[in-house]
Design goal:
By secondary structure, this protein is of the alpha/beta class. Helices cover 38% and strands 18% of the residues. Helix 1 packs parallel to helix 2, helix 1 packs across helix 11 and helix 6 crosses helix 7.
Length: 273
């Protein structure tokens, strides 16, 4: 299984927590590719040792340092230029690799990812989930239709979990489209920069995957329970990816959420033990 991650120095502890949960729930060999622009060599070696130890030698780290070709694109304190890297990953990964699963650092893996990883792309470039809150969907679709002048935006996908069809990506020369959108679009069209870009540039090349299984929004436990009768037992038994979306993160002080204790358990096992 090929796993793609991308972050800066500040997110290494959440990254370790996510990877630890991945190793606990997925027993196949895992090749991890870390795309970054500035993580220091000592931290890379520390991460390499961590991966070797916590995976019982079943996972390996591939260090992919990239030029910051998005230096002029819109970024914020929360949204760094590293968020764009997943969309051009095909340029930096082995040419014989046909697929890779991108995972945000702010997630926990609760069950196997094998079914997702081996799913048929059906000639799409990406697989991703939408978050089905009607207000979120309608507001983002309307905003992007106005800013991009694309009237065929029918869904708004979350980019935090992304299956990438590398074989197809290499045949589609789309990098210039990405750079053009990132460098020439105003703030209203890049409120959630890489995610907005994905939903405009690739709006017709994304296959939808189940939200509750592969991109469960940890903020919306009550909503999911009311809408789908999906309770805590269902999460632990059926959800593969628990995603701590938004600016309030479970490793920060004063975080309060349904899955606070669960996250702290994984954090303690990964970071403090």
């Amino acid at each position: 299984m090929n796993i793609l991650v991308s972050c800066d120095q500040n997110y290494l502890k959440p990254l370790k927590t996510m990877l630890y949960s991945l190793f606990l729930t997925n027993k196949s060999d895992i090749n991890i590719y870390l795309m970054h622009k500035s993580i220091d060599d000592r931290s890379i070696e520390d991460l390499r040792d961590f991966i070797k130890e916590k995976s019982n030698n079943k996972a390996s780290l591939n260090n992919v340092r990239v030029d910051d070709e998005f230096s002029s694109a819109l970024t914020t304190f929360y949204y760094t230029s590293e968020m764009y890297y997943r969309l051009v990953a095909y340029k930096y990964l082995p040419e014989d690799m046909d697929r890779i699963l991108y995972l945000d650092p702010d997630i926990l893996i609760l069950n196997s990812l094998e079914d997702l990883y081996n799913a048929d792309f059906k000639d799409n470039l990406f697989m991703a989930a939408i978050h089905t809150m009607p207000t979120v969907q309608s507001a983002n679709k309307a905003r992007l239709k106005i800013t991009s002048e694309k009237t065929d935006i029918s869904r708004y996908y979350n980019s935090g979990i992304l299956m990438i069809n590398l074989k197809k990506a290499r045949g589609d020369i789309y990098q210039q489209k990405i750079l053009d959108y990132a460098n020439n679009t105003g703030k209203a069209g890049l409120m959630m920069p890489d995610q907005d870009l994905l939903n405009v540039v690739f709006r017709n090349e994304i296959m939808e995957i189940p939200e509750l299984k592969y991109n469960y929004d940890a903020r919306r436990f009550t909503t999911y329970k009311l809408m789908y009768d999906y309770n805590l037992d269902d999460v632990m038994e059926n959800t593969a990816i628990l995603h701590f979306c938004g600016k309030r993160k479970p490793w920060l002080k004063n975080y309060i959420g349904k899955f606070d204790s669960l996250y702290k358990f994984f954090w303690h096992q990964a970071i403090e033990k």
